[in-house]
Amino acid sequence: MTMLPERQAGWLPQLFVPPITRASAVAALLILGTLSMPTAAAQITGIVTDLSGTPIGEALVSIRASKIRTLTGADGRFELTGIEDGRVVVVAGRQGFYNGSLWLDAPTTGITIELEAIPQDDNPDYQFVRARICGGCHNNQFEDWTGSAMAQAGTNTWVYDIYDGSGTEGGNGGFVYVRDSVYGHENPASECAACHQPEAWAHKPYQPLDPLASLSTPALHGVSCDLCHKIAYVDESKANYPGLYPGSVTLTRPAEASSQVQYGGLGDTEFGLDDNIMRPSYQPQLTAAMCGVCHQDMNDPDEDGDFADEEGVISEPTYLEWLASPYGDPESPLYTTCVDCHMPPSGADTIGGWYGYRFPVRDSLTIRSHRIEGTTARYLENALTLQMESRIGDRQLHVDIRIINDQAGHHVPDGVTVRNMVLLVEAKGRRNGQPLTQLRGPVVDDLGGVGDPAQGYFAGLPGILFAKVNHDASGRGPTFFTDATGIQWDNRIAALGVDESSYVFDLPVEGAGVDVRARLIYRRAFRFLVDAKGWTEDGHGRPLEDIQPPHFGHLMEEAVWSWSGATAVSGDEADVPNQVSLEQNYPNPFNPSTTIRYETHASGRVVLEVHNLLGETVRRLVDEDQAAGRHGLGWDGRDDAGRQLAAGTYLYRLQAPGGVQLRKMLLVH
User: Taking Cα atoms as reference points, which of 252, 235, 257, 18 lies closest to residue 121?
Assistant: First the structure.
């Protein structure tokens, strides 16, 4: 294992062949394709060894660009079945080795694939290849990456405003690390550059962020292609160490720029034009553990370089939250990696070309977008499900809210501790539009902003603010994570978790009617911090939704309900039913089929459709006149043409007399 050096020491980590557990190997197969099972006579058999002839167990063996793959046993032997006769390319990969391949005619038995161990050295003076150079062959990936948060990591103005106040005109307002942190004098560099300017940090660990006015080329590269694909090993026992902290991440940087290794997650790549240009190596950690390098970390209160101390407070919790959920369990039907969600298929069927050499055509589901998006509209609007049930009874309005984290593989909200989410429950008299008096139920915390609600200050309104709030040594909070000594409160919603809350309002004059609206609103920072810094844009120069009407944040989910006031409420319990009731499908997630139930309170035309996340109708389940009452039907996960749909999130929409309702469901394979 690489030893953790002293903070002042040089850094030259040694490579080694990392252990691969059966669970991680099976997980890789789940990501890449179907495990080849010996259900028929083996068409290709053989053994995988190193150059000395020693068998290599748990190596991934594949027919290139196909779903036919298997793992070698402890004796290095394998068999592949289900192969059409003819010319094929067999590729073997194992972490710590260059991929090995053979071109042969199937069926063939008794082959040997030799894997060469990657040299155990690393050059800290290596100059990372510019992303534009990578784009010469991988143009689609380069175009995806350009303009992304990864590409702009080194120039994020919010990071600079928190670090030294230099990011924006008002950056010196509020908390500034070098000025206000109790660690600002002892450790003025902090560890910001370990994630935000990793190329510079890899060359010289423990250095501060470059001055924003004079950024170096490595700082401008952000989180680049060559950096990610040079990560040979992530020590998952040190998940809470920040970024490329020495001893937690091992890189392979060649002494000669012409001798390159590129790590990847496909496991079946080979490149034979010039083995020194870009020798591929299978690295299954690139699908999740690598993401945890910067999306999981803890502070270091005693500044001893140990980010696993009990007194430390986790600042970025995303990776371990995912790992603890069913989504992080390779044995779970919900198993989904960071790449599966945040690097969805790009639509391409090849990863590029090289001066006349065309890379193999692949299943387009395996070619990933390299925008690596997070808190963009696409994800914020499909992370949670909001359900609202409203009724009139006992001369009062009752509103019940359920928020289900049924789509995110980690807590929501997540990321740095200034992120937050506001649930607003608004009940107004229909006649005058005035808010009804709240009698019972929670209200939004002061971190929702104290002031005029019309300007986005929601403190004290019916609802909840969801966040993780840290406190400092004196118990005051919130404090920035570098100075945190504990967690004041954390009410974020875990993966597959449910938050339930209830609200009671006084009714307006009898017969006046009411309108109810519930909104989930995502905010990039606590409102007091936004005001203190004077932020009008996010860290990448986009207009900041937190200060923009009508939602003063990004609207994630919304539900509405109205009552005309025509029904008398003089009795003890004169409930007013919804005109349309669409239930959550069951089971959910489902495979291969699920049941959808709904209820209408008036006869008429009913349309029930299934849509994908692009809004396209993939299946029309109902389109007919129906009598009022309760109805139910099944869906087999197929479109109108009878084709099996891909795993993912789908929306089902009910339109019936009395209203329209929409819900989400998750199809898994």
Answer: 252
The tens digit of pLDDT for each residue in 21-52 reads 545 555 555 555 544 444 455 699 999 999 99
Based on the number of CB atoms within 10 Å of its own CB, is 35 exposed (0-12), middle (13-18) or buried (19 or more)?
middle
CATH fold of 22-115: Immunoglobulin-like (2.60.40)
Are residues 320 and 296 in contact, defined by beta-carbon separation less than 8 angstroms?
yes
DSSP state letter for 5? P
CA separation for the pair 245, 250 (Å, rounded): 9
Q: Where are the domains of the chain?
A: 22-115, 374-576, 578-669
Q: How far apart are CA 257 and CA 128, in angstroms?
A: 9
Q: 466 near 421, Cβ under 8 Å?
A: yes
Cα–Cα distance, 529 to 460 (Å, whole number):
18
Beta strands in 224-289 (DSSP E): 231-234, 249-251, 261-264, 279-282
DSSP assignment of 64-87 equals: TTSS-EEE--TTSEEEE-SPPSEE
Spatial CB neighbours of 237, under 8 Å, sequence gap ≥ 6: none
Contact 610, 623 (CB under 8 A): no
* pTM as predicted: 0.82
Per the listing, tokens 């009878």 go with: 642
Number of H helices, E strands in the chain: 14, 32
Name the CATH topology of 578-669: Immunoglobulin-like (2.60.40)
How many whole angstroms from its chain centre is CA 506?
41
The tokens describing 298, both together, are 């803890």
**List of the chain residues with pLDDT < 70:** 1-42, 257-258, 272-276, 354-357, 510-511, 566-579
Contact in structure between 223 and 200 (CB atoms under 8 Å): no
Q: Do domains 22-115 and 578-669 have the same CATH topology?
A: yes
Please tell me the predicted confidence (pLDDT) of residue 120: 80
Supply 111's token pair: 């082959």
How many alpha carbons fall within 13 Å on the CB side of residue 416?
16
Contact 224/230 with Cβ under 8 angstroms? no
